[in-house]
Each structure stands twice: as C-alpha cells, then as structure tokens.
Amino acid sequence: MANVIFCADDYALNTPISQAIVDLIAHNRLQATSCMTQASDWPIHGTTLRELQLSKPLAQIGLHFNLTHDFGDGMLFLPLGQVMQKAWLRTLSKSQIEQTLIYQWQRFIDVMGRAPDFVDGHQHIHQFPVIRDVLINFLVAQNFTGWIRSLSDTVITPRFWFKSKMLQFLGAQALTRLSETVSIQQNQKFAGIYDFSETTPYPTLTQFWLDHANSIRQTQIPTRKSRIDHSLLIMCHPAVDVSDLSDTIAAARVREYQYLSSDQFLKDCSDRHITLAPTPSGAL
C-alpha cells in the first residue's frame, strides 16, 4: 500500500473553501489543511476546524504562511512578483517578515489552542530567500516539532514540466538543506501543481499522481533522515461553489471538490492500493 496525504490549502480564505475542506475532512477525503489565519473570519472557521478535529484527530492542521494576499490588516503585503524580486535582491525586511509570521502564528494558537502541525507558504513563498531564513530561525526558537512543506522532489507532470521545475528552482533545495541543518522534518515527495484551467481534467491528473505514489513504493526509494515516511503529499484547493467572485481559481476549486468528494476518487485510490493517511509525527 502506498501512503498518500491530501492537503488542502487556503482554509479560511473564504466560506466556500472552508466548507469544502471541513466536509472532505469529515468524510476522510483530506488528511491535512493549512490555514490563512489573517482572514477576518478565521476565528469562526478555525473554531469549526478545532471542533472537527476532536472527532477527526488524525487530520493535521497547519499554518499557510502568507505575504502575498492582502487582508487589509496592516501586516506586510506585497504582490508575488515584488516578493520574488525583493527576495532575490535580499531587500526584504527580516523584521517585517518576522512580525507578520508572529502575527499569523499567534492567531493560529489563539483559536486552535496549540501550535500548527506543519507550515507551508501561500504561493510557496516559504522557500524564497530571506523568508526561509526568518521562518527556520523562528521555528527553531519555538522548538517546533512539526514539518515544513518541501517541493524538492516534485512529481513532474509532462504538461506542467515548466511550472513544476520553476517552483522547484525558487528555493526548494535551499529550504531542504536549511531544514536538515536544524533537524526539521519535511515531506518526501510532492504533487499538485497544474494550471487550474477548465481544459485540465483534474481526475486524470490525480490518477497520474496516485500512479506515481505506487511507483515510489515499488522502487522503495530511500528517504533522507529528515524526510517523513510517506510516499506522496498532494496539494489541493477545493471549494463548494464559485460565489466568491474575487477568487480567480474558484471554478477549478469546485472541480477539485467534486472529484475529491466522489465515489470515483475512492475507487481510484482503492484500485491503486492507496492508503490515505496523515503524516506520522516523530518519524525521524
């Protein structure tokens, strides 16, 4: 059996997203979600998630560290292009990044009553220069025992080769080396990258990723000591409807939700002998 974890990003960004994620966790279709704690309704959505976790304790809840979505709360915000430019020029303010991280981290704790199980980044900014240094130093100071999302070993879908490679080149290996230096765990393999377009059949794409999970198991690729022992982490972005007109990928989110909540999804997993299981803790 290949062990796979589906992780939904953007929890609390809007109500349709949160509703989809709660439903999928409740029906054992998702094993993790990462939260945007700057959202004004985070206390409401977070409370729902906390209560759900009491009945679904195996679902892991993480922090979706954000610098590129403006919540109007006065915290550091820059469009993605500017974050990238300033990160590589090393002109980002470490103190502002840390202040924003502390703010988001504390809002998570205020609602969930504990630290996140893992950390990733909105638009993968957690692996960028400067940002990754601030993040790792902060996690070390917090005696963090969870894991960080890694894109170092991304499943390359031929149609999205360029996008996958580009995201890897934006600091994935550097983040992995930094995490290993301080013994913070990361996932082994990663998937979920595509263009969110209507012409991309999400079920077919997911079947490709699940097939790859089995190939990992069959070849028994050894993992680094700081990699968590599961075959594949698959990122997803579900939502129940397209009512949030500001959400540019809302239609793709609905297509993801429809597939992940379907009988076909369970059959696709069963046919490939996939076990849907959360990332084990203390797997070093």
Question: Helix and strand layout, with pairings?
Answer:
Layout: E1 2-11, H1 15-26, E2 32-35, H2 42-55, E3 60-65, H3 80-88, H4 94-112, E4 118-121, H5 131-141, E5 147-148, H6 161-169, H7 172-181, E6 185-186, E7 190-191, H8 202-219, E8 232-236, H9 250-260, H10 263-271, E9 274-276
Parallel strand pairs: 1-2, 1-8, 1-9, 2-3, 3-4, 4-5, 5-6, 7-8
Helix pairs in contact: 1-2, 2-4, 4-5
Features of the shown structure:
single chain, alpha/beta, nine-stranded parallel beta sheet, 284 residues
How would you briefly describe this protein structure?
Helix content is 43%, strand content 13%. It is built from 10 helices and 9 strands. The radius of gyration is 18 Å and the shape is globular.
Class by helix and strand content? alpha/beta
The CATH architecture classification is Alpha-Beta Barrel
CATH superfamily assignment?
Answer: Glycoside hydrolase/deacetylase
Please tell me the total number of domains: 1
Strand content: 5-15%
The gyration radius over C-alpha positions equals 18 Å
- Counted beta strands: 9
Approximate shape:
globular
Main sheet properties: 9 strands, parallel
Our measurement of the CA-to-CA distance between the termini, rounded to an integer number of angstroms, reads: 21 Å
CATH topology: TIM Barrel
Mean of all residue-level pLDDT scores: 91
Q: Approximately how much helix is present in the residues?
A: 40-55%
- The residue ranges in which pLDDT falls below 50 over 5 or more consecutive positions are 217-223
User: Count of helical segments?
Assistant: 10
**The CATH top-level class label:** Alpha Beta
Order of helices and strands: EHEHEHHEHEHHEEHEHHE
